[in-house]
Structure formats: structure tokens, C-alpha cells
Structure prediction request, 114 residues.
Amino acid sequence: MTETTLLRRLLVHGSTLGMRLFRNNVGRAQLADGRYLQYGLCVGSSDVIGWTPVVIGPEHIGRTLALFTAFECKIGRNVTTVEQGAFLNVVRTSGGIAAVVRRLADADAAVRSL
Prediction:
């Protein structure tokens, strides 16, 4: 399986778990006039971003909140860059859901770990 295949499967799988996930391409393209257009969240931001709806404790009974969700797709021995690891760490320490996903079960485990 390629990272692209994993990413596409993750987007569909996330929908079955109630998540709203989007592909996040990061890069830069040169325009016809020679200027560059930056796109994506930031260098190191995850392949897949979005939110996971979560119902919180007593003070929020009946209210669904959205937790920022970030998944970095990797296959085989591929590893995260320093920037990707930092992005995942910031999301996680800020209360969001963040994980390296090598198989769909990794996304499930990240959601269950709340």
C-alpha cells in the first residue's frame, strides 16, 4: 500500500467514526508572473487535518465540541520529519488528537485514547 492509498482510506474511515477530515497539501507553486504561492497550513503540518466531535463532561452536557485532529500518514520505514513531529506534539499537548498513522487501527487508537 502507498501513503496515498492509506491517506484516501483514512479519509473514508474517519467519516465512519464521525470525524470530518481533509487532505492538507503543503508546498509552494510558481505563478505565471513569477511570484510564489504558499499553500497548506504550515511546514510540518499533517497530511490529514480536521476535527473529531466529542461530548464533554457535566458542564457541557448535550454540547458537542470539535477537537482538532491531525494524522500523519507513513508507510513502511518512513519516519516523520522534525517539523512533522513538532506539529503532532503541539496538537497533542494542546488537547487535540494527533498520531502517525501506518494503518487505520492507529487512527482508531488515537481517538480511543481521549
